[in-house]
Amino acid sequence: QVQLAESGGGSVQSGGSLRLSCAVSGLPDDYKCLAWFRQAPGEERVRVGHISRDGFTIYPDDSVKDRFTISRDNTKSTVYLQMHSLKPEDSAMYYCAAAKSYGGSGCSTVPDYWGQGTRVTVSS
Fold first, then answer.
1. Spatial separation of the C-alpha atoms in residues 15 and 31, rounded to whole Å
2. CA 59 from chain center: how many Å?
3. CA-based nearest residue to 82, from 64, 97, 105
4. Within 10 Å of residue 14's Cβ, how many Cβ atoms?
5. Which residues are within 8 A (CB) of 37 and not within 5 positions of it... i.e. 6 or more apart?
6. Are the CB atoms for 99 and 11 separated by under 8 Å?
7. Hey, is 64 helix, strand or coil?
8. Which of 36, 78, 93, 121 is the most exposed place for a label (fewest CB within 10 A)?
9. Mean pLDDT of 83-107
10. What's the per-residue H, E or C state across 90-114?
11. pLDDT tens-digit series, residues 108-118
């Protein structure tokens, strides 16, 4: 059974930091790409970024570049989202997702497995 369990969300003041974790288990062998998405109320879910099997990261959301970092610890089957300099517009539900991997650094853009999400609230 596939499980992705996010943790680490909460409330923080603007300029603060949070680290989200996602413990992963039961994934098929070819699902090595792990991604973070977020969804603010009334908005679409957007990809924050992802990390490939060999640690290659992509952050398509320009608003998080230089503030957010995705990393993984394969020994713990956990992916992390470290967030610094948080802004009120970062407030959202954050989701961990798993996608099929291709080679060492290739990732499908469409995840097939999702966690339940963890809420982040940034106050001004």
1. 34
2. 10
3. 64
4. 13
5. 45, 46, 47, 48, 94, 95, 97, 111
6. no
7. helix
8. 121
9. 94
10. HCEEEEEEEECEECCCEECCCCCEE
11. 989 999 999 99
DSSP β-bridge partners for residue 74: none
Q: Which amino acid is at 52?
A: S
Residues 6 or more apart whose Cβ sits within 8 Å of residue 63: 89
Single-letter code of the amino acid located at 109: T
For residue 5, give Cα distances in angstroms to 83, 97, 118, 120: 18, 10, 9, 15
- Residue-wise pLDDT tens digits, 6-37: 999 999 999 999 999 999 999 999 999 999 99
The alpha-helical segments, DSSP class H, found in 1-124 are none
Asked if 34 and 50 touch (Cβ cutoff 8 Å), the reply is yes
Instruction: For the chain, give the mean pLDDT.
Output: 95
Strand partners, 38: 46, 94
Q: Which residues 6+ apart lie within 8 Å of 112 measured at CB?
A: 31, 98, 99, 100
Alpha carbon distance 27, 24 (integer Å):
7
